[in-house]
UniProtKB/TrEMBL annotation:
<dbReference type="InterPro" id="IPR027417">
    <property type="entry name" value="P-loop_NTPase"/>
</dbReference>
<keyword id="KW-0131">Cell cycle</keyword>
<keyword id="KW-0342">GTP-binding</keyword>
<feature type="compositionally biased region" description="Gly residues">
    <location>
        <begin position="258"/>
        <end position="268"/>
    </location>
</feature>
<comment type="similarity">
    <text>Belongs to the TRAFAC class TrmE-Era-EngA-EngB-Septin-like GTPase superfamily. EngB GTPase family.</text>
</comment>
<keyword id="KW-0547">Nucleotide-binding</keyword>
<dbReference type="Pfam" id="PF01926">
    <property type="entry name" value="MMR_HSR1"/>
</dbReference>
<keyword id="KW-0460">Magnesium</keyword>
<keyword id="KW-0479">Metal-binding</keyword>
<comment type="function">
    <text>Necessary for normal cell division and for the maintenance of normal septation.</text>
</comment>
<feature type="domain" description="EngB-type G">
    <location>
        <begin position="23"/>
        <end position="197"/>
    </location>
</feature>
<dbReference type="InterPro" id="IPR006073">
    <property type="entry name" value="GTP-bd"/>
</dbReference>
<keyword id="KW-0717">Septation</keyword>
<dbReference type="InterPro" id="IPR030393">
    <property type="entry name" value="G_ENGB_dom"/>
</dbReference>
<feature type="compositionally biased region" description="Basic residues">
    <location>
        <begin position="229"/>
        <end position="240"/>
    </location>
</feature>
<keyword id="KW-0132">Cell division</keyword>
<protein>
    <recommendedName>
        <fullName>Probable GTP-binding protein EngB</fullName>
    </recommendedName>
</protein>
Amino acid sequence: MPIFRQAVFFQTVADLRDLPGDAVREVAFVGRSNVGKSSAINTLADHTRLAFVSKTPGRTQHLNFFALSAGKYFVDLPGYGFARTPEDIRGQWEGLLAPYLRYRAPLAGLVLVMDSRHPLAELDRHMLEWFAPTCKPVHILLSKADKLTRQAQAAVLHTVMEAVGKINVHCSVQLFSSLKRMGIGEAEAVLGRWLDMRIEDAERTEIIGAAAGADTHAAPSLPQQPGSRRGKVARVKNRRAIGWSARTAGKAGKEAGGRAGGKAGADG
Ligand SMILES: Nc1nc2c(ncn2[C@@H]2O[C@H](COP(=O)(O)OP(=O)(O)OP(=O)(O)O)[C@@H](O)[C@H]2O)c(=O)[nH]1
Ligand SMILES: [Mg+2]
C-alpha cells in the first residue's frame, strides 16, 4: 500500500499566521506552473482528485496542506513563472512563499518538480541557489517522463544530476510520471525518510509476497527507518532504481468538509 494513501485535504493557507500549528514535518512541492506538482501529490497519495489539477497554468494559488498522518503534511505551492502582474508575484513571494520556504521549521525538504522536457529553467536554478543556505534537502522530480523515449529519459537524468550537484549539494534527482505512475517507489523512499514515515509497514504485504518466492527481481534496498527491525530489508516489488543522489544526503483523519472526496481539491 502506498505510504501516503491516507492523505486528505487539510487547509488552504493565504497568510503565514494560518500555518498549521501542529506540524511536525512537512514536504513542500515547488516548481514552475503546469509542471505537474499537484498531479505528483495525487499520484503519491494514490488519489485522482486530492490536489487540483488543471491545464490552465497558475491554478494553485495558495499553500495547500494535505495531512498524511498526525503532524505530517504535503504542501502544494503555487507555480512560479506564471504571468500575472509583477506586483502580485512580488507580493505573494515576499509575503508568503519566501518566508515560508526559508523559515518554516517543520519543513523537512523541498520537492522541486521540473518538466523533464524543459528542466533547469532559470527560475529553477534560482530556487535551488536561493534554498541552498537552508541546508535542507531538495528532491527533484523530472516530471512527465512519459513524454520522452527511454534514451531521452536517461540523457536528461544524467544532465540534470550533473548540473544540480554544482548548484546545491543537498539534491537528489529522479524521473517521474503521474500518467504512467513511474518513479513512485523512489519518491516514497526519499519522502518517507524525510517525513519519518515507515515504508516497511506500507510495503509489508509486498515483502511477504517476495519472501514467498514470488519475486526474484533485484529490487533496491530502502533506507532503514528508525524503529525498524535490524537486518530486515524492505524489497519493493517491480520497482527500478532510477534515481540519483548528489549526497546521501491527529489531524490526518480530519476531513476537509468533504473536499477530499469532492469534485476538486484545493484552489478548485
Ligand atoms: N503527460 C503527462 N501529463 C501530466 C503529468 N503530470 C501532469 N500532467 C498534466 O500537466 C498539466 C498540469 O498539471 P498540474 O498537476 O495541475 O500542474 P501544477 O504544476 O500543479 O500546475 P500549477 O498549479 O498551475 O502550478 C495537467 O494537464 C496534467 O494532466 C504526467 O506525468 N504526464
Ligand atoms: Mg498545482
